[in-house]
Specification:
The protein is globular, with a radius of gyration of 20 Å. It has 2 domains: 6-180 and 285-370, 3-Layer(aba) Sandwich (Rossmann fold), CATH 3.40.50; 184-280, Rna Polymerase Sigma Factor, Chain: A. The protein is built from 9 helices and 14 strands. It has an 8-stranded mixed β-sheet, sandwiched between helices. It has helices at residues 125-139, 152-163, 182-197, 213-227, 230-236, 256-269, 274-286, 321-334, 357-370, and strands at 11-15, 19-20, 26-27, 30-37, 47-51, 77-78, 83-84, 89-93, 108-109, 114-115, 146-150, 170-174, 307-313, 338-343. It is 32% helix and 16% strand. α3 runs antiparallel to α4. By secondary structure, it is an alpha/beta fold. Belongs to the AB hydrolase superfamily. MetX family. It comes from Sphingomonas lycopersici. This is Homoserine O-acetyltransferase. It is found in: Cytoplasm.
């Protein structure tokens, strides 16, 4: 099937596959929703792949068709931006397992003519990368000038350099890690249990009825706390009460921070699928780049000839700086060229998505040096 506007979600392709998965199964066909910006050079040498985070999507620099909001990284990607679409051909694909047009639990299983739901195969970060490689093959991109990602996108960028070392010239990894800590897995499990405890989840079979909105909203609230910093929360909300009688105690959203988290949860339900949340968080938890390469992280990069740029934030306790340093040490051991910077920000993990002039300068300088 050629590109179309299926689902009203932008560009979409159905590839025959099959895609061999780390879990041993095969997925066919493979649906991939994606967006492109800029023009591919005649020699194909200006392609940049943007890998998105857990709850993001392919609309990195264009308005979201469901929410109407601007692209989630318009300050980074666009004409004259650090990732300059006047010079670069930028591709951003919705990850495998997600709910914005790529193959996932909400797509139709050709064997049953119903949504896959929990019959969708378990996926990994490396499976997502392999699906992206299939898309790039379709687009005629043999080699990437750079792969760029933050958070889960950074995991994909690392996996790209390790899985397709001959196809990546540079990798930018922002606020990420080579594997999840026990704490990260624990937070994800709380979110998954919240979804599965919602009676409307119905073992994942809810597509023709009411969605498990309450459980997914709680999962988003718990996760969102990890994206922020204590200093940022204190500065923004403190212990301030809502603008009403402070003596009317109860279980309504008395504190401003409560109201903020509830809003985050409810707005998330409008644009994301609960089963996709289960699958993608599990893929992140399974990710262990060292384990994929004999237990030694440096082994993942020995075949790579890419340049690497790693960035962390000093208030990010979800993926603290020590995680980036561990990757830098592995890259040094593998003899790979790497630059690293810890940036100061009050915004915690979400800093890479917010206004960060220092981050823009780092990315622009690194990509410019490669050009």
């Amino acid at each position: 099937m050629s590109d179309d506007q299926r689902y009203g979600l932008g560009r979409h392709i159905v590839l025959p596959g099959p895609l061999r998965l780390d879990g041993g199964g095969m997925l066919a066909p493979v649906e991939i929703a994606y967006e492109t910006y800029g023009t591919l050079a005649p020699d194909g040498g200006n392609a940049v792949l943007i890998c998105h985070a857990l709850t993001m999507d392919q609309f990195v620099a264009s308005p979201h068709p469901r929410t109407g909001k601007p692209g989630w990284w318009t300050a980074m990607v666009g004409p004259g931006r650090p990732i300059d679409t006047d010079r670069m051909f930028v591709v951003c694909a919705n990850v495998l397992g997600s709910c914005m047009g790529s193959s996932g639990p909400a797509t139709i299983d050709p064997a049953t003519a119903r949504e896959y739901a929990m019959a969708f195969p378990v996926i990994t970060i490396r499976d997502m990368v392999r699906a992206q490689a299939m898309l790039l093959d379709h687009l005629g991109v043999a080699r990437l000038a750079a792969v760029v990602g933050g958070s889960m996108g950074g995991m994909q960028a690392l996996s790209w350099a390790a899985t397709f070392p001959d196809r990546v010239a540079a990798a930018v990894v922002i606020a990420s890690a080579a594997r999840h800590s026990a704490q990260n897995i624990a937070f994800h499990e709380v979110g998954r249990q919240a979804v599965m405890a919602d009676p409307r989840w119905n073992n994942g079979d809810y597509y023709n009825g009411e969605v498990p909105a309450a459980g997914l909203a709680v999962a988003r609230m718990a996760a969102h706390i990890t994206y922020l910093s204590e200093a940022g929360l204190t500065e923004k909300f403190g212990r301030r009460l809502q603008a009403r009688d402070a003596k009317s105690f109860g279980f309504d959203a008395d504190f401003q921070v409560e109201s903020y988290l509830r809003h985050q949860g409810l707005s998330f339900v409008d644009r994301f699928d609960a089963n996709s949340y289960l699958y993608i968080t599990r893929a992140m938890d399974y990710f262990d780049l060292a384990e994929e390469h004999g237990g030694l992280l440096a082994n993942a990069f020995r075949a790579s000839r890419a340049r690497f740029c790693l960035v962390s934030f000093d208030t990010d306790w979800l993926y603290p700086t020590r995680e980036s340093r561990a990757i830098v040490h592995a890259l040094n051991a593998a003899g790979a060229p790497v630059s690293f910077m810890e940036l100061s920000s009050p915004y915690g993990h979400d800093a890479f998505l917010l206004d960060s002039p220092e981050l823009y300068r780092v990315v622009a300088g690194f990509l410019g040096a490669g050009a």
